[in-house]
Amino acid sequence: MGKYTLRRLMHMIPVLFIVSIVVFLIIHLIPGDPAEIMAGTNATEEQVAALRHQYGLDRPLWIQYFIWLGNVFSGNLGHSIINGFPVNELLKQRIPATIELAIAAAIVGAVIALPLGIIAALRPGSVIDFSSTLFSALSFAVPGFWLAILFILLFSLHLKILPPSGRPEFSEQPLEHLKSLIMPALVLGIAMAAKLTRYLRSSMLDILDQDYTRTARAKGLKEQLVVLRHVLRNSLIPVITVFGLQIGDLLSGAIIIESIFAWPGVGRLTIQAIGWRDYSILQASVMFIVLAFLFVNLITDLAYGYIDPRIRYE
Fold first, then answer.
1. Exposure winner among 201, 224, 226, 235, fewest CB in 10 A?
2. How remote is the C-alpha of 86 from its chain's centroid?
3. Contact 4/313 with Cβ under 8 angstroms?
């Protein structure tokens, strides 16, 4: 497994290099000029040109890219074009909030999906099975931003039990911090649970029809052991794949949800950078998202070997 992990890590280098080029070009194709935004509406052409020259925006794109790449190799992600703040520090401030939200949403999704998917598979055609199907269908149909607005209207404006937005520091206001986490985690977790429930139910129904499941029952094993050791464990491979992809989505910042709840994570930072045409922040944020996906996919692949001992990496 060590060689496989090292090989996968080495494969990430050319992937990140190619992605960085594509992302850099796409970002610079976004309409708008950062120099004009910094200079303001009343600025003259000379002032705008001076700002372009100061930040190197008047150079050819390939030169700008290699300057940025050289700075990255030296550990410097640049400075915000708008306020001059180091991008490294901005990401250090925002990444913990995104990771916290991703973990909370993943816990919510797993807590809902595992029992619901297992019971629905063991009792096909039952009320619980119908309820799980209805839950998945509604969750797929309802947009996340709409559900977030409903939650704010219900829990914040009507019931007044949860804050509508923001993220107080845990060290200063631990209770308020946890309260602010509930709604965004629920919105993301419910969407995640819908997919996991559907895949877990389908996978378990397939495993329940396998010969080795019938053999385990014929040997007199308790139904609980058959479900846990044979059915559930073998059903988790496709579920783990979907779970890994969902974690990647969550770590990418859950851009819309973070913006609605004013959650100070990477997703909200990305939206703000698009509005500011802040190329340095955008490039760094998108590269973090790509890196998060690559690492989550690697961890997901490694998890297969622990779930199914028949899988070998060497």
1. 224
2. 24
3. yes
CA-based nearest residue to 246, from 108, 81, 77: 108
How large is the greatest C-alpha to C-alpha distance in the chain, in angstroms?
Answer: 86
Total residues belonging to the chain: 314
> What span, in angstroms and rounded, lies between the C-alpha atoms of 37 and 48?
9
Q: What is the DSSP letter of 79?
A: B
Task: State pLDDT tens for residues 75-119.
Answer: 888 788 777 788 888 888 888 998 899 999 999 999 999 889 888
Q: Where are the beta strands (DSSP E) in 2-100?
A: none
Q: How many CB atoms lie within 10 A of CB 44?
A: 9
Tell me the one-letter amino acid at 2.
Answer: G
DSSP classification of residue 229: I
CA 192 – CA 132 distance, rounded (Å): 13
Question: Could you state, in order of their start, the residue ranges of all structural domains in the chain?
Answer: 2-73, 92-307
Q: CA–CA separation, 65 vs 235, rounded Å? A: 45
Opening angle at CA 287, ends 70 and 100, nearest 5: 130
Question: For 21, phi and psi rounded to 5 degrees?
Answer: -65, -50
At position 298, the amino acid (one-letter code) is L
pLDDT tens digits, 178-199 = 999 999 999 999 988 988 998 8
Residue with tokens 């060590």: 2
Nearest to 307 by CA among 219, 213, 243: 243
pLDDT value of residue 104: 93
Pull the structure tokens for residue 250.
């969550």
pLDDT value, residue 311: 64
